[in-house]
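Two records follow; treat each independently.
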Amino acid sequence: MACFGWCSAPKVDEDIDRPYSIKRPSKVVDSADQAFVEDPIGVIPNGSESEQGGFKSLRSTHAPPLPTVHTPSKAPSKGSYAKVEEVVGSIPISVKERASANIEWVVGLDFGTTYSGFAYAKAADPEHIHVYYDWPSRNSEKPYCKTLTGIYYTEEQAEKLQCASWGHHARSDSVVSTAKGVYLSKFKLLLKKDLDDPFLVSSIPSPLTVNTIITDYLRHIGELALTVIKNHEGDVSFNRDSVQWCVTVPSIWDESAKQQMKACMVNAGLVSGKGGIESVKVVLEPEAASFHCHQILRQKHKDLSLHVKDKILVADVGGGTVDIVVQELIGSGNDYKVQELTESSGGLCGGTFVDESFMRFLSKRIGCLDEFLRSGVPSYRSRLLKDWEEIKCGFGHEMVSNNDTKEITLHNKLASKWEAYDAERGYPPRQSYGEIELTQQDLKSIFDPVVDEIVELIAAQLMQVEDIKVMFVVGGFAGSPYLMQRIRKRFSRDVKHIVSPPNPGSAIIQGAVALALNPDAVVARILKKTYGTSVTLPFEKGVDPSEFLKISEENGVEWCRNRFDSFVKKGTRIEVNKFVTKEYVPHTRGQAQMMFDLYSSNEQEPRYTEGPTVTREGGFAVSLPESYSMDDMPIFEFSMYFGRSNIELRAEAQFKQNQGEKARAMELPVRYYS
């Protein structure tokens, strides 16, 4: 693998394609005004540097070289992530090109754990955002702004699965179809690396991968969105390249998951080859919800007005994830602008985990249920969850008495199996095996473990910031009367206004479109992690572990591999248009690309890139011009944006100005690898 470094540095005992570096002063650049702020000097290996805080750069050239070595990166995986490598190498559109691009439509796509949907607007008519409701269904599904995030595969040929249906159709087909097939749901959660759900992981049959499933689903819902837009005005000249896609993601996702989502959009064929992965915008779900709620208040609830310096807490309670962010309003009215006040937080405790709690409850009540679902009628789980959905949505409603009970009718085969199961064990016979009764206390025991976790996440954010004026509660699970009842009971004394907008499930998709049409609305974010790369530094005896020791064969100098070299620090507020800028020189003649691994940590000052507190987030590879001279080397300038909804890298070759010629610059292709 070709890497990068400073060619003037002496060689250490490593392969020729490993990088070196020197000391340089650092600075932060604002892409709006190009202002520079100098920071302390630090060690700069592999195009990075260690520092006491702030941003870094490799602009000046006065310091003497210091040898360092980049820890070799693994080659990008050829497994389930192989397609990502292939598609993310597209040349990014420059900022100016993007601004002048012929974007006529903006689509917000909310790919959720349980439900997914989309909204769209004409770029020339941003006030009118259309939410799609007319989802294909074979049953009388209640009108909703989303369809099921489910997909059904059948085995058309031996060991070859084909997507047969998606959305509502997928679940109903899996129940009635006689073909050999598999129904998959909740697969979005598998993008989270630290998910501890062996059952969900094992539910993906070979040769399917998480990426292929998500790509298939996005292809179908995306093509439907394009058809709807095309038919909106009967536009026969509709060009799919005129669509700007905005994909919503949880703020708690790591960089790898965000990049995987963007790559799946490209693999699905929804994005043109010219723009590639960079033409997919990532929108953070709680930010989209906040913007939408602000618009609702401004337009329809003028009795509750927000002003500059007001503080807002947004709780996005979806099917799989809960995202919470606290923002401060720094521009109001039509000039809406916010900045984060705390690190966004959240967890895997959305509405789908109430479903899992329900299934555990049933398993305890019906001793043979698990065996029945494994070997009897596996598709019956989907039917049980569908019947449960109606009960879940109504629990806690003010019209429902605390003494009311709910019944679920059971499959005839399950009823017979349950009766035989009890008889074999000598249990007293039940009055009926054909249904199961759920009391209000039963329902409370199913809901409370998940709702308690959500409430505590909100409480933890409120402890960090005082004087929250309004709390917005959005997302699919925000439609639960019981959840809202619990939130209001716990926090009504701390927060004056607790608001859940009409149709809270559509707040994110509408907000995603609105944010795309108002890209300057979010001004700054708080970093949840420290980001950096892997470098080699002088070995410190008694501090560094011996397994990281590398001794130079040339001069016997001792080096420590796998040292964490920070770009930006956890807890830092970073403006969206601030970027870390660095300049690199290829190490070898004919080097085709420069690349480095990106690491993150929850620690402020991580020392190593290996260990339980550090995560490898993938990395960036920059393709170099086909012909350049080592004797007349252009400056390769990298700009990394850490304050945006996902980490972005722009790379440029700045060629030297020869006599009689104008200085010129070339934007370089960048790809993310996992």
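The next record belongs to a different protein.
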Amino acid sequence: MAIARLYQITNTLLSFGLDEFIPAKKRPWFARVARSSLFWMANKHADKPLGVRLRLALQTLGPVWVKFGQMLSTRRDLLPLEVAQELALLQDKVAPFDGVQAQKLIENALQIKDISELFSEFEQTPLASASIAQVHTATLVDKGQENEVVIKVIRPDIEQQITADLALMAQFARLLVRLFKSSRRLRPVEVVKEYKKTLLDELDLMREAANAIQLKRNFTDSESLYIPEVFSDYSRTNVLVMERIYGIPVSDTDALLAQGTNMKLLAERGVEVFFTQVFRDSFFHADMHPGNIFVSRDTPHNPQYIGIDCGIVGTLNKEDKRYLAENFIAFFNRDYRQVAQLHVDSGWVPADTCVEEFEFAIRTVCEPIFNKPLAEISFGHVLVNLFNTARRFNMEVQPQLVLLQKTLLYVEGLGRQLYPQLDLWQTAKPFLEQWVKEQVGPWSVLKQLYANLPFWAEKMPEMPDLIYQNLKRNNRQLSSVKEKSDAKPILLGMLACTSLICASLSYLAHEWLVSGLTLSASVVLFISAWRKIG
């Protein structure tokens, strides 16, 4: 079976002439001989551009390869632009599998004898069908109430097919690197590894359910984004039950205009939702292509997005968020020195990188872009150019930033489609500047102190013993020194910190007088310690 599939894949790739991705002069002699010996697999589509041939070949190979092409279309740092654009046309729609079989899968997953035990209605004809799963409509009877739902079911035996194809992909990637050194720049082994993780994650619908629940909680009562409710009690690894929504596909601009949708506000809210997810929540929907985004039919003058299919999400840690926001702001201000320095400080490029050379390279790439009006500049493409430049300086692939780049390209493309005059820079800049201020201002310090209060409250009873032990140790260390009074600043500083913690705890307990007194004592002690040091 594996040999037959390998033959089929090889035949397809060569029949579409995909060996031309490697220039003839870069191919070793044995590779040329091997290609010539497979004369019956000659290129049958020589009249088509290479990007078109790649897209057609992936469609021929099936769903696993289609999704691989979709993922590659977001890696514009690895492929020529025209090839990436062609891959973006890949559609995930495939023929559905039998509805009776889908019903049986649902019954087995939920451990029921008949679908009618939980669902008063079930439509065996699928509402939609994709490479990994298909969706059926139903009416769930939950606690005596009827709820219109959709049931997502993983295709039968898809995991075995995916595992087999992924193994062959990995072998192809390793062989490519071994035979053609020039292919290392494309990092085929790493790309396949990244794809494998993404695809296997999509097979676990409980992961998708958890992601949807988190996103829904993040946007509770939001006018900008609605996430359908997940019925987790009736969801399993291969079955997901969630609220059915009735919205207009975001790509159907004619329908949106016909109902009088405020397109400018809708486009701006797309930007707002993206930056809120990234910088406020550090948890963002990373598959926001038009097929997963709808617009509510309610209140078209105050439009609301509806997001589905939360199988792929991205996260950023605190450091990445700060560096990314400061990078964007530095770009707004065309401060390329700051951009270069931030890349070094964040560890995205090696510490020994020459900042001056890096700054010059960034300026060379980005300055021509800024000759256009801001409204015409692609935010996403600036990010792509930045990462491409950084890779010349040995920037390591940052998976979280790749997902972010992909999502930003989706969001920007969507915004420009809805409202071509959208100035994404002008929309995003105030948001980012405010976020940075909040991270470095006095309120940020108070928030961090507040977040650590449970820890300090737990340690407070131990504080006298710790102070006593530390003073004892200091006295022993200072016994050989002439003036033991040097320990006084340490004592005063520790007492000042203790008073500050007591003041914070008293404030939370609404003991205003105690809080004020201990805060005053803390200030006095800090000043005294400072004078002793002086």
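Discussion point: Residues 158-179 form the longest helix (22 residues). How would you locate this feature using only the token line?
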